[in-house]
Design brief:
This protein is of the alpha/beta class and about 230 residues long. The protein is built from 9 helices and 9 strands. A hairpin with a 2-residue loop joins strand 5 and strand 6. Belongs to the dethiobiotin synthetase family. Homodimer. It comes from Haloterrigena salifodinae. Its EC number is 6.3.3.3.
Length: about 230
Amino acid sequence: MIDPIAVVGTGTGIGKTVVTAGITRWFHERGVDTRAIKPAQTGHPPDDDAAFVADACGDSEAATCLRYLDPALAPRVAAEMADEELSYEELRAACEDAVAETAAPIVEGIGGLRVPLAGDREVIDLVADLEATAVVVTRSGLGTLNHTALSIEALERRGVDIAGIVCNEYAGATVAERTNPDELERMTGYGVETVPPLDGESPAALATGVADALSASFLERLSTADD
């Protein structure tokens, strides 16, 4: 069994789900017992990240969501608005159980690291408590340097191992995009992967595109993150 992989982001809507799908599919195609775990899904319906990952892998068992909430808000706020109980301890225990049931668990974050999860705990608390190795997904264009560096610093302060940074929807169309990967490596000391725009394709094609874009060395590093 490898350490849990936490696919986290610098914000909402930056591509955590498609990167999660790509990594999960890569493991799945190699016969590894893998499952993507979404601790909480807000905005459901229609949003269902676990269903997207399962569809991308062609296997309903390839992903699971532990809690669904209707309001499209941070989980803690969504539960409050829906007048539902959301316990961090119960959510953490459910994540730990799901992690223990698979050889290659992949936990997808919710929004950014400081998003309120439950009670006074945030997404970053769960990542740290699970002793996960983080993959940080970020935007490619102007503005990403600050958001990414701050996210890396937050993870480091909590003692979270970081596998690398993924700049999503990288087209290299602007000077900022073309220089950001090298600048992020200089600023953070971590390797940067780039994934090109893959809009308009099926979940399976999107996941394959992500896996094809990520370097072999990066994926192999994820697969050998032993306890």
